[in-house]
Amino acid sequence: MNRPQNRILPRMTGIASVWTWIKWSLVAAMLVAVAIIARLVMVEIETSRLQARYLSELTRDVGYAVEAGASDHVRFPASGPYDERLGYAMIPAFQQRLLARGFVVSKQARDSERMLALADRGLFLPYDEKDQAGLMLFDSTGAPLFASAFPQRVYRDFDAIPRVVVDSLLFIEDRYLLDPSQPNRNPAIDWGRFARAIADQGLHVVNRHQARPGGSTLATQIEKFRHSPDGRTASPPEKLRQIASASVLAYLNGPQTMLARRTIVVRYLNSVPLAARPHIGEITGIGDGLAAWYGRDFNELNRVLAAPTTAENVDQQGVAFREVLSLMIAQRAPSYFLNGGYPALQRLTDSYLRLLAAGGVIAPTLRDAALAAHIERAPPPQPARVQSFISRKAITSARASLLAALGIDDVYQLDQFDLEATSTLDNGVQQAVAERLAKASTREGAQAAGLYGYEMLAPKDDPSHLTYSFTLYERRNGANVLRVQTDSVNEPFDINRGGRINLGSTAKLRTIVTYLQIVSDLHARYGALSKAELARVKPDPMDGLSLWALDYLSRTQDRSLQAMLDAAVERKYSASPDVFYTGGGAQVFSNFEKSDNHRILTLHQAFAHSVNLVFVRLMRDIVHYEMIRTSGPSSSWLDDPEQRRHYLQQFVDGESKVYVKRFYTRYAGKPADDALALMLKDVRKSPPKIATVLRSVAPNESLAWFDAQMRAQLKGTPAATLSDDDLAALYAKYAIDRFNLNDRGYIASVHPLALWTLNYLRAHPDASLGDVEQASRDARFYTYTWLYKTRYHGTQDRRIRRMVELRAYAAISKSWRALGYPFAEVTPSYAAAIGASGDQPDALAKLIGLIANGGDKAPTETITRLDFAKGTPYETRFVRAAAQPQPTLSPEIVGVVHQLLRDVVLTGTGRRLAGGMTLPSGKTLEVYGKTGTGDQRFNVYARGARLIESRKVNRSGTFVFVLGDRFFGVLTATAHEPYAARYDFTSAMAVQLLKSMAPALAPLIERPAAVGPQAEVAAPATGSASPS
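Structure tokens predicted for peptidoglycan glycosyltransferase:
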């Protein structure tokens, strides 16, 4: 029975031995495989051979080409400090804005398919990035105008870096980066540091106090500084993105990376962020860091550190090395270490000096010298002083044009863009003009320019208090191209485009154009009617222009628009001074030449000789015409009760808000008792008046508070002896509910809305002006209840007329804005026709340019080309598209205005240029234009319009002109208070100064007119993505 079992047991034991052998064989094989894999991994970690082969093959087709037209094969970065600072991330937004403003994409980068694939997978584009970039401006001749570079101080190549700086950097950050035994090394990852970083991250999950030192290499730190959002590693995927991007970039030139690794050292030192300082901004790179934080000359420091160490220079080297080393360490937390944590930075620097010496990186003598060195941060820099703003006017103008074109308002940001831009300015002529304007502010220069004489400077006048401005445009290829724009003000303020200046009778040009447009409208409305039909038209009696048009058309044989416009400028007006109810009150106007008083002049004559009263009356006719056109017949708004109420409510709402705003501005933001004291300061020390103010402003305060306030206010007056019972009686008598708001204002001699506003602000101290205006509506309307009484019918009529008049001025404002007027509204007064509404020289020049261009509105060009990101896979060039002028004024109006402007020069106030402008070559150019003398005064009138005070605030002389058949512009001379009262010059001085500038303008004027746009290179240019 047992024998079969005995036979089976040895067989089963043999089978078990086989399986055991197989199992251990598999284990051994697995161990061998693991060992082989581990060895391969170790070999790969040491040599990066497989990475080198794969990544260099991957980047073989990475590149880009720059070709004509817009590209759909380009990927712009979304964020990153470097990409934002250089403007790369904003190119798509700029492109959209520039296309809407008359530019086209002339050429743009086409990224290769492999580069696009890398970008679409989330990597940063691999290419040879710029360590230094900035705005470069060129004038229209191609001459450099301005250049900025950020950072300002960089290492140009690896050999420029002192060896001790390189060795120290590698010891601290990436010790094996330049190991020559590893020609294929991937500089993006240090496997030992990376493994330790992962382990520390894991331990931090268990123990949140566990330190988490980073595993970054120099290569990945550069990617972080430049391209990661906010320059930070926000997540593990972002770290992997940095590693992958740095790896691809390292092998862009092939499997051997030593050249790329040396470039990494240069790039890191040039791009490390080192916080910011006032008047400097962000500090990038060791070079700028040394200058900003230690006041060090970068070139001198490098010379010191590159020299062999000797007993004579070791102390100097110690100071220099300590400064560099401290900045290398500070990059870990620059805002802390370079400000409040500076003592900690110095202690850490001491520690690293010892480590560097122990590691053999620096000699003990250098260590000891650096440890003994005491370095202090340089004091905060002062704002850079500009030697002359006048010489920089071209730069200021070009940068302002760029800011407007790109839709940004920060010059500091603009100057850091990787951008080359070409301005239309001719800097050579600009500087020559600026020099002549500056000389005209000296007695010798003014004498040489012929500025002393009749209607100009008197022999006693000192021209040093005068400022001049000049703008010149050229009509070219359907556009107005700015060639010169400068002034003699040694400040960054631009007179030509900034401010609101009274340019005197140049406003007559805007007024006459508006008038002729109205005549054209009347011709279109009535020109085709028969005499019988014209007789049936009944215009409003106020509408003098329609009355004249109907009368003219009913009598003339020639009903053409041209004939009617010619007749319109021959209409006659009185030039007599008078009192005019305009601008909300009675105003008196005068003529410059008293001999013009009481004359009857045509508009043509008055325009040529700048007679004010004629144009005041013309503006009155224009306003009356617009009042009827915008609001209907005068009978409707004067006789209709509903219309009257409507306009009166508009008036009350508008005027009462003016008062509320005034009182809000005076009292808001002040402590309650301080605001009350401010009001009481202007109240007569009478018990009823003081009591009314106190009980109106603070009705809920106690009798004790009232008693104390009253005694304080009445101290030193006969009423100071009032008894407690007397004060209690006043407290009760003048309670807020005993009198209405208007009565309380009357008793206190304080505007009722002032009482209401201060009362509201005591209860609502944080109220905004809008809150106060809304809450005060009932009070505001209540204070004007007197206006609705029938006995004030005449007063009502004046208010109603004022509201209708404001609507008329709104229509005039719209008309002027269509002709380039730079402000939203004209001053609502007849004086707008003689300059009271103000203007800007540049806008005035564009108006006469419209006339010179036959009534077609041409676009203005100040920038012709913008080159973003040259030499990168984001490269984009914008150029001006062909201009399309817009018809704005009819040829008939232009013809009439042109003749008026010619007569100003031939027979009127511009006659100093009646013979034209003669250039040094002997060539003479015809000149026509409009003069204007601004005499802005602060006048005070008594009852009956009696003038009791007149103070000169500004005086100006202006000539807006057309020069030949291509050029137009404007020249102004201005004197401001307190010097304005010393001068009596007129626009004749501006005319004479322009005449004297012929030699300065000749190089531009005599240059042949361009026949086409600037040539563009049509052939595609290729660009390498290689970082070498």
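The longest strand covers residues 946-963.
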